[in-house]
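= Protein in question =
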Amino acid sequence: MRVFSAGIATETNTFAPMPTGLASFRDRGYFPAGKHPDHFNFFAGPLWAARLRGREQGWCLKEGMVAAAQPSGVTTRAAYEELRAELLEDLRAAMPVDMVVLALHGAMVADGYDDCEGDILARVRELVGPDVVIGAELDPHNHLTAAMVNNADILVCYKEYPHTDVLERALELVDLCAAKVQKRIRPVAAVVDCEMIVTIHTSRQPARGFVDRIQALEGKDGVLSVSITHGFPWGDVPDMGTKVLVYADGDRRKAEALARQLADELIAMRAQLQPPNPGIDAALDEALALDRGPVIISDGADNPGGGAASDATFFLQRMLERGIGNAAIGPFWDPVAARIAAEAGEGARLKLRIGGKISALSGQPLDLDCSVRRVAREHMQTGLANTPTAMGESALVECAGIEILLCSLRNQAMGTDLFTGIGCELASKRIVVVKSSQHFYASYALLGGPVIYAAAPGAVTMDLKTLPYRKIARPKWPIDA
């Protein structure tokens, strides 16, 4: 079997202030055809899965380019069209092929393209023809469109949030696509729009039980695959929202009935899916009132994994004003402050202007008297699916009992080694504020303290009614009554 795999992935926050250009892809992860490293990469799940299965089964695997960018604002037209052209040219060079498996995201928006993934899949389909099997792995925070479903034989979303199952779902995708090539299955798709947008934390009930149940359905009674599109509310495109995607083996009615049933279950539990979101002061009050720690507070509104700058000062400012010490916060994407602290060196005391640099959603810069605790020229943290994530030149600085993690590469908090790897003893802290919406949970929950999901100003605000939507389908709960 001749197999081609490649990928282009980023999550676009259409309300975020910073555009996504080619440099954003090269900073996060860009590998030309045939140059992907010999280890698993988060945004190349299908390629790695095809390597594993291909070695077992003697496939001829042709590897195209893989490019991924940190979530940010709208991708520039030039960047998208250049990357798309490279992927398609790699595919042309690999043809003829029996199967194409792509690593996509599902919420990439470029200047002039509201549905980048649908556009890519349509062009791949045009190139390979109707008989070649096309599959793609998607992040569940996608905008599932008709163009995506119609031009792919199989789409599989990660089921877990935080996304700890990327490789498992990639293997599932590759196995289903191979079965389709071998004419052992005939996947037919059904999609139901829930007409809502919800946060689905699979680390807590009722989402945990729901995901367990849909996984138990797969591979039985003709049900091939079930994916839940959570949706990405910070993308203002027509197809934004929560959807259910079911593939059945040759039985469209079965697929449609199950998709409708699961959608109705999701709609019925929607009010329970979103955790409480207290404001900054309420979150701090709640943390201080708890007698065990460290208490983890999610500053999801400044989550770089959702397109925010990760330099907002709202939480830090209130902690300083209230005299809250024995705390840690980060990561602050502030390459200038990180460089100055690194140059000053460990043990130095100096004045630093921290954060508040990118837009009004970053708050005001804070001028602080700091001591430099630790410096790392090439700091790393453990990211999703245990993949290494670079933070660049970084520094841990302290001001008034608060340790602040400064970094030069924009990535959200995922592994606790973001802090511990640069000398911050998290276990002894009373409060730890992380710039992340949920991907921190798998690692930070192991510290044993409570987790509070706070509401703060920022580009990834949970107060969706404040966002100036122009394109989304309405009505949509909870934006509309």
Observations:
- Residues 50 and 191 are 27 Å apart (CA to CA).
- The longest helix spans residues 77-94.
